């Protein structure tokens, strides 16, 4: 601050000036204007040097506090999470065929990425061999990014993961994402069968991420242990999570952060706030990047969407009760299928679900973006009828 100015601006109260600028944009109808298009950001780098951390945080968070979004829906990226859900009356082979069809459509509709999640010992989820499915989808599409949401790193050696994804990235250049999770993706008995004596592997997750990055680094060319293929390849790494621990790690390493709000919504807001507050820029990422995974059931009418959504409600009820089944067909009413306690538990897990017509979902998405400032939304859809599922993804894409 010198000569009566602050970073080239008149020396006034910075908080008051900031409120004035944001409110001016809000009141002028620019409610969804990205913050970077307001007049105040050009001197952010200067502010970064002369004001305190709490004030810097307020500068970044103020638009969210005032109910403004950093991005409009048109600026938002949208993607697909596929759990390779097996439906009642159909085979796993049918599931994989449908995934290819869904991925091809997603590519045509402008979806950014198509991810699979590693799960084990679940009757209705066939994505246990995640890297194989990624290769299968990448081989049947042309441009959409394909990846893991995620690979449960404690289940694997970092070297083997580096080699597998190095192979994928060599076969499909600039199209492979590597999302990493800390959880086992299964129950404890199955985790023990996967990990053997290494049941404490989750405690070494941060170090395993470091090891993985080292194997991908060109600087490891002189290392005693090298990933071939993998070394020197630009494979984007994401940190996945459902708690604040993952947020801290993603922030400390300067990596994009994907939150599992489709089944663990409780810590979503707290986690992304913590991530943004503590983010340290890295060679991969200069600014925080949040992707929220949400449940989506879209149809021509709200009533039809609610009917289709009874399948995912039955699926989550199976998670709550421990009585998992193949994805069930929709029902006219959940009355008599669940009790009041099961309903409450399921609806809490489904807090971030977008169910309804295209118009309703667009409105809900706008509110969601205003509230959270998320950079990307990843949709997962557990819909019994495949054609209805394809249509749901089409309607969701049209909302952007």
Task: Explain what you see.
This protein has 400 residues and is an alpha/beta fold. It has two domains: 5-65, no CATH class; 73-297 and 350-398, TIM Barrel. Helices cover 43% and strands 14% of the residues. It contains 15 helices and eleven strands. The strands form two sheets. An eight-stranded parallel β-barrel has the order 3-4-5-6-7-8-9-11, surrounded by eight helices. It has a two-stranded antiparallel sheet with strand order 1-2. α6 packs across α8 (205-216). The longest helix is centred in the N-terminal third of the chain and has 17 residues, at 92-108. The two termini are 43 Å apart. Mean pLDDT is 85; it is low at 1-11, 28-53 and 63-69.
Q: Distance N terminus to C terminus?
A: 43 Å
Radius of gyration: 22 Å
Q: What ranges have pLDDT less than 50 throughout 5 or more consecutive residues? A: 1-11, 28-53, 63-69
Number of helices: 15
Highest CATH level, the class of the largest domain: Alpha Beta
The percent of residues in helical segments reads 40-55%
Any idea how many domains? Answer: 2
Compute the average pLDDT: 85
Into which percentage range does the β-strand content fall?
Answer: 5-15%
Strand order of the largest sheet: 3-4-5-6-7-8-9-11
Superfamily (CATH H level) name of the largest domain: Luciferase-like domain
Biggest sheet statistics:
8 strands, parallel, barrel
Shape: globular
Listing every helix as H and every strand as E from the N terminus to the C terminus, the arrangement reads EEHHHEHEHEHEHHEHEHEHHHEHEH
- Helix/sheet category: alpha/beta
CATH fold topology of the largest domain: TIM Barrel
Please tally the β strands and state the result: 11
Architecture (CATH level 2) name of the largest domain: Alpha-Beta Barrel
């Amino acid at each position: 601050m010198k000569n009566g100015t602050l970073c080239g601006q008149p020396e006034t109260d910075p908080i008051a000036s900031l409120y004035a600028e944001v409110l001016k944009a809000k009141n002028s109808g620019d409610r969804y204007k990205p913050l970077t298009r307001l007049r105040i950001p050009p001197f952010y780098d200067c502010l970064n040097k002369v004001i305190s951390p709490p004030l810097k945080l307020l500068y970044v968070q103020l638009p969210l506090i005032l109910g403004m979004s950093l991005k409009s829906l048109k600026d938002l990226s949208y993607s697909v999470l596929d759990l390779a859900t097996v439906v009642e009356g159909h085979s796993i082979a049918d599931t994989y065929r449908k995934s290819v069809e869904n991925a091809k459509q997603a590519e045509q509709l402008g979806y950014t990425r198509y991810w699979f999640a590693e799960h084990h010992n679940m009757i209705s989820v066939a994505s246990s061999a995640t890297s194989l499915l990624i290769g299968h989808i990448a081989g049947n599409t042309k441009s959409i990014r394909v990846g893991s949401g995620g690979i449960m790193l404690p289940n694997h050696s970092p070297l083997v993961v580096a080699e597998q994804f190095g192979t994928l990235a060599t076969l499909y250049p600039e199209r492979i994402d590597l999302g990493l999770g800390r959880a086992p993706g299964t129950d404890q008995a199955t985790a023990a069968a996967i990990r053997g004596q290494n049941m404490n592997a989750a405690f070494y997750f941060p170090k395993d991420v470091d090891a993985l990055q080292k194997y991908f680094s060109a600087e490891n060319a002189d290392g005693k242990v090298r990933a071939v293929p993998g070394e020197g390849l630009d494979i984007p790494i994401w940190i996945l999570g459902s708690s604040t621990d993952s947020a801290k790690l993603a922030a400390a390493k300067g990596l994009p952060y994907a939150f599992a709000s489709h089944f663990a919504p409780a810590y979503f807001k707290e986690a992304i706030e913590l991530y943004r507050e503590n983010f340290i820029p890295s060679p991969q990422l200069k600014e925080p990047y949040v992707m929220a995974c949400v449940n989506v059931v879209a149809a021509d009418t709200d009533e039809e969407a609610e009917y289709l959504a009874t399948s995912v409600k039955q699926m989550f009820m199976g998670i709550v009760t421990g009585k998992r089944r193949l994805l069930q067909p929709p029902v006219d009413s959940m009355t008599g299928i669940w009790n009041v306690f099961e309903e409450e538990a399921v609806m809490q897990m489904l807090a971030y679900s977008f169910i309804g017509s295209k118009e309703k979902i667009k409105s809900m998405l706008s509110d969601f973006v205003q509230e959270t400032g998320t950079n990307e939304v990843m949709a997962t859809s557990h819909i019994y009828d495949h054609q209805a599922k394809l249509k749901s993804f089409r309607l969701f894409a049209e909302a952007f």
